[in-house]
Amino acid sequence: MTNINLCEKISEQMVLDAQQAYPHECCGILIGKIDGSITVSDIRKATNLVTGTQNRCHFEMDPMFLYQVEREIEGSGLEIVGFYHSHPDCKAFPSEQDLHYMIPGLVYAILSVTKDGVADIQYFQK
Amino acid sequence: MKIYISATLRKFLGGTPQVEIPASCIRKAFAILLDLHPEAQNVFYDDNKKLRDFIQVYVNGKKLVIDTLWDTELPADTEILLLPAIAGGAPVEGGQNATVESLVSDERRKSVSFDDSEVERFGKHLMLKEIGVKGQKRIKAAKVIVAGAGALGSAVIQYLAAAGVGTIKVIDFNEVSLENLQSQVLYGTRDLKRPKVASARDKVKNINKNIEFIAEKEQLDSSNILEQIDGYDLVVDCSDNYKTRYLINDVCALHGIPVVFGAIYQFEGQVGIFNLDGGPCYRCQYPSPPPAGLIPSCSEGGAISPLPGIVGSIQANEALKLILGIGEHLNGKLLHVDSLYLTSRILKVERNRSCPICGNSPTITDVEEIDYDELCGLKTENEIPVEGFTPEELAKKIDNGDPMTIIDVREPHERAILRFPNAIVIPIGQLARRQKELDPNKDTVFICKQGKRSVLAINTLREAGYAGPLYNLKGGVDAMKDIMFSHEGAWL
C-alpha cells in the first residue's frame, strides 16, 4: 500500500463529521496529491444520499457533488485522492459493498465510530 | 459527443479529462473509447459484458437509466459525464463474527415470568446454555406472524407453539380441503371444510393453552397488510404465491420487520432471511416475479409430503434464533435444499443498491402505491383478451361433435393423473415451431390444469403469428372434473 501522509487537522475534521453523523454513516472526499506517496491536504464533507433507516449502515454520495469538487479544484495542482466514510458501531474494516465500489489506486479511510466517539481510523486501497 | 471523465476514472482512459467522440449514441461512444483504451474494458464491464454498476452516466447533467438510453440517438452537442458511484456500507451482512442481536429487548424479556409448569415444559430449552431462562423468556415475549397456514405453515406454527412463542398470529384465507392432507400435517379429516386458522387455533391451544393465538381469516392485500403486521417482531412467510410474497417483503422492508422466507417446489426448498439489519430484501434477489403461468406454483407443480416439514422446520429454527439472538443465521443468504439428492447449498444474496424498496434511494414508499396484481402479471387488460369456454360449453361442443382441435399443454405427470381424450400434446416451448400442426380453419382449444398456462400458450402462439381461432378452457381440467358427458359414460 502507498504511504499516506495526513496531518492531524484532517483526521480531526473526519472524526468530527463521523461523530456528528452518528448513528448514521458520514461520507466525504479526500483531496491532495499522489506522487509515489499520497498526501491528503483537504477534505470535503458530502451528503449521505441514503434515506430512511438504511443510512445507519449504508452510504452513497451524489456523483454530481464529486463532479463539482473536481471542477472546483481543476488547475489548482490538487486532485481527488480518495474518500472517507464511517462505520457506526462497527469495525474500521471494508465491507463487501465497500470493496465492490472501491476504485483502484485511490485511498479509502474508514472510521469506526460509537456513541463515545471515534475508536479507530484505517486506510485501505484496492 | 463530448465525454467528461471523472478524475477518479481518468487513469484508466488515458488521463484526459474531456474527449470528443464522433458517435451518435452512448453504446457506440463507449465502444470507440474502449477501443482506444482496451485496458479499461475490465473496469467498465463485468464478465457478462454488462456495464458495472459503479459507473454512473449522466447525459447533459441528468442521471439516466442507462438501459433505456444505450442506443438512443443523441445530438452532436450532447455532454456525457462519466462518474463513479461512491458508495459502501458497514459490514453488517452476516460476517463470521457478526453479533446477532435478539429481536426482543431486555425490558420485554424482564417483563415476563414463568410458573412451575413452564419450567418443566421448557426444561430441554433451559438446559441449553444458548437459551436458558433468559432465552426462554425472550421466546415467550416474542410476537410472531405466520403468513399462510398451508404445508410450510403447518410445521412453523406447531414448532413455534411448542417452543413457547407467546404470541402467534396466523393469517390464512382458505379452508381445509382433502388435497391439503397430503402435506399439511396441522389438519386431519375432521378439519375438512373448516377455516384453516380455526383448526390451527385448536391445535395450538391443545399444545399450550397459554399462548395468545390470533386467527385472521383474511386475504392479505396492500390495504390491510400494514394493520396486520404492526407491532410484531417477525413475519414467517409461508405463502404459496408471488403476490403475497412481494407484498409481505415490501411492507416489512418499509417498516423494518425481518422476514423468514420459505418456499417449496416438488423436491426442492428454499429458506432465507430478509430485511434484517440493513441486509437485502426479497426484491434484491428477485427484482420481479416470473411471468404468470410460466412457473407452476407449488399447488400446480406438486411437492413430496415431508419437504414442507423440512423447510418449515428450518424456518421455525431460524425464527427462534432471531428471537434469541444466537448462532449464525441466513441473513443475506438463501439456503437451497434438494430432498431428492440430499444436497444443500447456501447462496449469497447481495443487497441491491438500486433496489426500489430497500435501496439507497427507494422509489416505493408505500405498498398502497403498487398494484400487486399487475406486478405479478395477474392482470391481462393490456393484452388481447383470451377467449375461452367454460367446462360446460366445451362439454356441449364435444357432445355435439363440433369440429375442433384440443391441445393439452400439461406436463406428462399431470396427464398421467387425468388424461384428456383426443387431445394433442404439445409443450408450450414447442408451440411456435409446431404451429403447422394446427388447422387455422378449425377452432383450437387449449387445456391445462387450472387454465393459466393455457392462456400463456395462446399468447405465445399469437406472438408467433398464428392467425386461426384460439380458445382457452376456463379453470382448466380441474374445473372439468365434475362434468359428465351424455354418451358412453364419462369422457374423463
Instruction: List low-pLDDT spans of chain A.
Output: none
Q: Percentage of helical residues of chain B?
A: 25-40%
Strand content of chain B: 15-25%
CATH superfamily of chain A: Cytidine Deaminase, domain 2
Chain-averaged pLDDT of chain B: 87
The count of domains of chain A is 1
Strand sequence of the main sheet of chain A, in spatial order? 1-3-2-5-6-7
Helical residues, percent of chain A: 10-25%
Which runs of chain B of at least 5 residues are low in confidence (pLDDT < 50)?
93-97, 488-492
Number of helices of chain B: 20
**Number of continuous helical runs of chain A:** 3
Largest sheet of chain A: 6 strands, mixed
Largest binding interface between chains: A-B, 42 and 36 residues
Which terms summarize this structure?
heterodimer, A: 126 residues, alpha/beta, Cytidine Deaminase, domain 2, 6-stranded mixed sheet, B: 492 residues, Ubiquitin-like (UB roll), Rossmann fold, Oxidized Rhodanese, domain 1, 8-stranded mixed sheet, 5-stranded mixed sheet, 20 helices, 31% helix, flat, disordered C terminus
